[in-house]
Amino acid sequence: MKKIFSMLFVALVTISAAQAQSADEIAAKYVKAIGGAKAWKAIKSTKLTISMNMQGMDLPGFIISDNKNRQRVELNFQGMKIVQAFDGQTAWAVSPPQGITTPTPLPEAQAKGMKEFQFLNDLIDHKKRGTTITYDGEGDIEGVACYKIKVVTKEGKEETVYIDKSNYMKVASETVANGQTMVSHYSDFKEIDGVKAARKIVVKVGGQTFQSLSISEIENNVEVGDDTFAYKGN
Fold it and tell me: What does the buried/exposed string (b/e) look like for 71-101 if buried means 16 or more CB atoms within 10 Å of the residue's CB?
């Protein structure tokens, strides 16, 4: 009996090691497919010119972020400027359609997402950054055969990443929030400054499109200062 349990333990350890190795190999091939870690780490800031469609409304704007994990999202809604930003300390917003006309800290539930933002892709240098990845089998996303990788950051953020088996590009990511499963679909990949990124992102909840994001321009290493992100409220 002891021998049987010993063999079972060895088998389980071997399976776990093989899966971990597979996850690392898949992640390495993905990072290579999008341009490589060196090229991505050479980018210190990014500005995306976007159009967001939500509930039938098109909202033009931009997203600026930098390697200090700061971010500013600015949208135009019927001539009104909507801003959400994180300056490294405070996540804040201005949203006239909601009656928020001066910079106001976001409630913690809303701020959480901005505070968890990582400028550098989670699968680049994941071990050094305390992120764990595990192989989660294979799956199909809208007809695309994929490897599934479960990603858990050191802050505890979890997502399942779908990597296209044919070219090792990330075609989707899945998260659970407030009991709802959200799936982000990535497409229209373009290369700029030696790195590849999606120019179309569609977020679905329960299989229905919740919002979509089209990126018309990507500018890397743009000049940004503290004022770009700073909370200037009371």
Answer: bbbbbebeeeebebbbbeebbbbbbeeeeee
Beta-bridge partners for 148: 162
Predicted local distance difference test score (pLDDT) of residue 58: 93
From CA 210, how far away is CA 198, in angstroms rounded? Answer: 18
Residue 46 neighbours by CB under 8 Å, 6+ apart? 63, 64, 65, 66, 119, 218, 219, 220, 221, 222
Q: Model confidence over 207-221: pLDDT tens digits?
A: 899 999 999 999 999
Answer left, alpha or beta for residue 152, where phi above 0 means left and psi between -120 and 50 means alpha.
beta
Q: Is 179 exposed, middle or buried (0-12, 13-18, 19+ CB in 10 A)?
A: exposed
What pTM does this model have?
Answer: 0.86
Extract long-range pairs of 142-151: CB within 8 Å, 24+ residues apart.
142/185, 144/171, 146/171, 146/172, 147/22, 147/26, 149/23, 149/26, 149/27, 149/123, 151/122, 151/123, 151/126
**Cα dist. 147→112, 168, 214 in Å?**
28, 9, 25
Q: Domains in the chain, ordered, with CATH?
A: 2-229 (2.50.20.10)
pLDDT in tens, 180-213: 899 999 999 999 999 999 999 999 998 899 999 9
